[in-house]
Amino acid sequence: MKKEKVKTCKYFKCNKEVYSPKAEFCGEHERFYRGHRNTIGSVLLTLGGIALSVLVKKQMK
Ligand SMILES: [Zn+2]
């Protein structure tokens, strides 16, 4: 078993070194992951807003 001191990117099939000790991904995939997370976040916010307005409409009946 070999011990690696350098953390590598968690991305599937990517073995690049992470850009900082606390990072989980290499620079390229960190950017990709963050962009993705922001997209998911805004979608969830939109869905949450729709769900809220539906609930409010139901209560107003
Ligand atoms: Zn990577």
Descriptive notes:
By secondary structure, this protein is mainly α. The chain contains 1 helix and no strands. It has one helix at residues 27-60. The longest helix is centred in the last third of the chain and has 34 residues, at 27-60. It is rod-shaped and about 65 Å long. The chain starts with 26 loop residues before the first helix and ends with a helix. The mean pLDDT is 86. The site of zinc ion (ZN) has 8 residues, from helix 1. The site of zinc ion has 8 residues, from helix 1.
Quick tags:
mainly alpha, 1 helix, binds zinc ion, 61 residues
Task: Give a short synopsis of this structure.
The protein is an all-alpha fold and 61 residues long. Helix content is 56%, strand content 0%.
Give the arrangement of secondary structure elements.
Layout: H1 27-60
The structure holds zinc ion.
Instruction: Calculate the terminal CA-CA distance, rounded to whole Å.
Output: 66 Å
Gyration radius, in Å: 20 Å
- Residue stretches low in confidence (pLDDT < 50, at least 5 long) are none
Instruction: Give the averaged pLDDT, no decimals.
Output: 86
- Secondary-structure-based class equals mainly alpha
Number of helices: 1
The major β-sheet equals: none
Along the chain, the helix and strand elements come as H
How many extended strands?
0
Shape: rod-shaped
What is the helix content? 55-70%
Bound molecules: zinc ion
Residue fraction in strands:
under 5%
